[in-house]
Structures are given as structure tokens and as C-alpha cells.
Write a structure and sequence with these properties.
Layout (H helix, E strand, L loop, with lengths): L13 H31 L15 H12 L8 H27 L8 H32 L10 H11 L9 H29 L7 H30 L19 H12 L8 H29 L1
Helix pairs in contact: 1-3, 1-9, 3-4, 4-6, 6-7, 7-9
């Protein structure tokens, strides 16, 4: 069975898009959380990701085995509860608002002539809305993943929230929001635009098909890989800004990275780690992006189709 990722899909009820988005977020997060943990550990490490003796994490395989040996398998799912809340809320808000934006564009004359541009603009807007709504869960998730098992500061989601409110301020939940929006808006826009482009190319090369399961997987993975690579430095800056003021939870992970704001974060990174420092953790991030994007779009398509069949 197939269905089309196009303006035609906006004919579905808004609630269906919200449910399908939440389901796709849950499924994707459950399967890909270990990749996210490794990516965040790489992003927060100031020392080079290499065979250098001072570096704690040196490669994906070495980091995976080291985390298992030092912290146990549960560490690969550290921060999973807030991550799931983040993914469900983000997926629901993203696809719901994307559907709303596409319905608005349908009112414009000659919208089909700007087919991929409308996907980009609607995707960028949807990503921004979803990011603002879900950002506090992202901050909590990052801190839970960032802390050492030997120097635990937070004992779960509720404790981390109360500690941040008591010791810092509500603003701490939104630390790194600016680079997040600078990253997420173009990233989500590019994801939707690339996905629409690649699904159209797939249909051209495979006549007589719309958007099948295989089309969604292939197009979603390529779209996620391309979009993530383009905006990656902002993702790195976001993670580093989210741990400012959290030095006590980073003992045992090497030098602590300190900065003041987005531009200073990028400047200090380049000064201390070189331009390549802006792309630290890119490989696991690309693997994660390709995997999660493929699962995200495919699960969304299939759940939306299932809801349509059940009505």
C-alpha cells in the first residue's frame, strides 16, 4: 500500500497527523537512543575524537564498548524518558503544524509551481514550533546523558527539573534555544524539501508507484543525511550551551568547555579545536540522522495510512 507525501495529504484530519507524528517519534527514539548518547558524548568532549591518549572517546566502536564496560548497558539509554517525551511531543507538534502550514499554502494561487519551496518553508516553520514546545525536555535529556555515572547530579527527570529550577532558573531550560532554532528551522525545512525531492525521483525511476515503504526508507535516510551535514555546527553549539553551569556533573570526562552565547561557542571551538572541532561527532550524527529520518518518515506514513484504513 502506498500514499503520497504532498499537498494532497493535508486533506487528512489534523488529529491524524498529530497521532502519526507522535507514534513516529516514539518508535524512532526507542530504536535510536544509543546512537544519540554516543553523539552527545562526542559533542561534549573537548579533546580530539582520535587515537590520542588523552581522549576518553576515540571512535564509535570504542565509545560504545567503553560505555558498556564503565557504565553498563543502561547507560546507552541514559536520558531515555525525557528523550521519549521530547520525541513524542516534537513529532506531534512537527507534523501537526506542518499540516497546518501546508493547508495555508494551498490557499495561495499557483502553489504547485513552488512545490519544493513550500515543503521547505512549511518544514522550517513546523520545526521551529516543535523545538520551542519541546526544548525543556531536550535540555533535561542532554544533562542526564552528559553526567558521569560516578558523579551523578540528577536522579531522574523530576529531580533534574526541580534542581535546575532551585539552583539556576527557568531560563536554564531554554539555554541554547537560539542555535537550536538556527539549526532546526533550516534542518527541518531541508529534510522535508529533500524528502519530497527524493520521493519524486524514486517515483520517476520506479514507474507505477507512489510512496511505498521502501521509497520512504530510502528517501528519508538520504534526506536526513544531507540535511544534518549542512547544519551540524549549530547542533554541536546547542549541546555545548546546554551544559553551561553543569561543570560539577562533567567530572571524569576531560576538560570542561566554557562559552558565552552562540557566536562565542563557535569561536572558542574553532580556536581550541580547529575548524574540524565544529564537526566533532559528525559520523555518529550522520548515522543517527539517516536512520532516524528514515524511520521518522516511514513510521509517520504507515501510521497515517493505518488511521485512514481504520476510519
Amino acid at each position: 500500500m502506498t500514499m503520497g507525501f504532498s499537498t494532497q495529504k493535508t486533506a487528512e484530519p489534523n488529529s491524524d497527523h498529530a497521532i502519526a507524528g507522535a507514534a513516529s517519534g516514539f518508535i524512532t527514539r526507542f530504536l535510536c537512543q544509543p546512537l544519540d548518547v554516543i553523539k552527545i558524548r562526542f559533542q561534549l568532549q573537548v579533546e580530539p575524537i582520535s587515537k590520542h591518549h588523552i581522549s576518553k572517546y576515540r571512535s564509535m566502536s570504542q565509545a560504545f564498548l567503553l560505555i558498556l564496560r564503565e557504565e553498563g548497558s543502561a547507560a546507552l539509554w541514559k536520558g531515555h524518558v525525557p528523550a521519549q517525551l521530547l520525541s513524542i511531543i516534537y513529532g506531534m507538534a512537527q507534523f501537526y503544524s506542518y499540516n497546518i502550514f501546508m493547508k495555508m499554502f494551498q490557499q495561495a494561487p499557483q502553489v504547485e509551481e513552488w512545490h519544493h519551496a513550500t515543503h521547505f518553508i512549511a518544514g522550517a516553520g513546523a520545526g521551529s514550533v516543535a523545538t520551542i514546545i519541546s526544548f525543556p525536555f531536550d535540555t533535561v535529556r542532554t544533562r542526564l546523558v552528559a553526567q558521569s555515572s560516578n558523579h551523578q547530579v540528577y536522579n531522574g527527570v523530576l529531580h533534574s527539573c526541580s534542581s535546575i529550577l532551585r539552583q539556576e532558573s527557568p531560563r536554564a531550560f531554554f539555554s541554547g534555544l537560539l542555535p537550536s532554532l538556527l539549526q532546526i528551522a533550516p534542518h527541518t525545512g531541508l529534510q522535508f524539501a529533500f524528502y519530497g525531492l527524493f520521493t519524486d525521483l524514486y517515483k520517476n525511476y520506479v514507474p507505477g508507484t507512489d510512496i511505498s515503504f521502501y521509497n520512504s526508507m530510502l528517501s528519508g535516510s538520504v534526506a536526513g543525511l544531507a540535511a544534518k551535514t549542512i547544519v551540524y555546527p549549530f547542533d554541536l553549539a546547542r549541546k555545548r550551551l546546554q551544559i553551561q553551569g553543569f561543570q560539577h556533573g562533567r567530572r571524569g570526562f576531560g576538560k570542561f568547555f566554557e562559552c558565552n552565547g552562540l557566536l562565542d561557542c563557535l569561536r572558542v571551538t574553532v580556536r581550541e579545536e580547529g575548524v574540524q572541532g565544529l564537526f566533532k561527532g559528525l559520523v555518529p550524527s550522520q548515522v543517527k540522522a539517516a536512520t532516524t529520518s528514515a524511520l521518522h518518515f516511514t513510521a509517520y506514513e504507515q501510521v497515517l495510512l493505518l488511521l485512514k484504513m481504520l476510519r
